[in-house]
């Protein structure tokens, strides 16, 4: 039987497959996946390992090797789609990184820190100025006083904060509930931690939380509930009612809460609410955030985790052996960024509202069914008016024939069938780029 850990895709085929196992791809591409697997299997078993290589045919490279807990994962969909954007000269509305730079005052602060010699290892859990700035910002946003020395841990981006939280606080066999569609690193890091994953699906058009389904999913083995608000990829904001329901479940069942809030400053239609700020929740919550989305500096990879000391201990233990410390001069600059006046955040929202309107209006004019987005810089649409079997087939066509990149969100579900009718676009691009992408889609896309 073909082992996933030794599977090799033929050159050129890997780009449009889910970054997961063959078994999970087969529901979308049963015949194609089987043919590829059979072809690869045959090519690897037709000759004996001891036979001499044929002339002009170098021996096959050794099979890829990976630990079983990660063998279902391949290159992330973000890397795949960004590579294809370059290959085909397509406008990239897929991966969520801005194509414009962050503010000058923050970049100048980084240059100043470098020139002042702040270039050696930082303190493991963060330089003091940044820890204090994070605590101050958190108090402004939530009203909560946190100890910057004992309750704030600086990480290499929020992705590392997520990994440190999962690896530091989740034991093998623990159940963790998350909401699908979900950011792909959640599943990967939970798999590394040996967790049992339960997914509660958020469905269009409003992607609301099915409260009774969530309540039924909580068992004596549930260790944590992981939420992301504002929510990537749907743009949903968790309502106060939904957060209150989750808080009650956590308190009644002694369950932890992990909250990814990297888009908290991109809440357009209602105020962002941190779960930790609800009564009785700070003591059981790890709040995860970062600099990149708010300040258009995703390449700096400055993130953090805020939690009470008894939970911070586990996060820091994992963090110490993942990265130990994060870039020193960038931390110094991040402390300056977080002390920005409120006018910065107000202007940020105004700018993104304009960008969002360009994309949403254009997608509707092109023929998509566009779902509401209250936060983040993402918009989810239904692509079925154009007659494609699934999101991967549509995104392949969109890149090659239309010249626009989007993300196929079936990769963000445990069951990819649940996302096959959807596509995610981002509007974290300059207005000219957004208009050019919209014009291409309006010109070339045709409804069936």
From TrEMBL:
GO CC annotation: cytoplasm
Bias (Low complexity) ranges: 39-54
InterPro entries, per the entry: Aminotransferase_I/II_large, Kynurenine-oxoglutarate_AT, PyrdxlP-dep_Trfase, PyrdxlP-dep_Trfase_major, PyrdxlP-dep_Trfase_small
Region (Disordered): 39-64
Gene Ontology terms, MF aspect: kynurenine-oxoglutarate transaminase activity; pyridoxal phosphate binding
Composition-biased stretches (Pro residues): 55-64
Keyword Phosphoprotein: no
Pfam families: Aminotran_1_2 (PF00155)
Cofactors required: pyridoxal 5'-phosphate
Keywords associated with the record: Aminotransferase, Pyridoxal phosphate, Transferase
Residues of the Aminotransferase class I/classII large domain: 91-440
This protein's name: Probable N-succinyldiaminopimelate aminotransferase DapC
Lineage of the organism: Eukaryota, Viridiplantae, Streptophyta, Embryophyta, Tracheophyta
Gene: LOC120282580
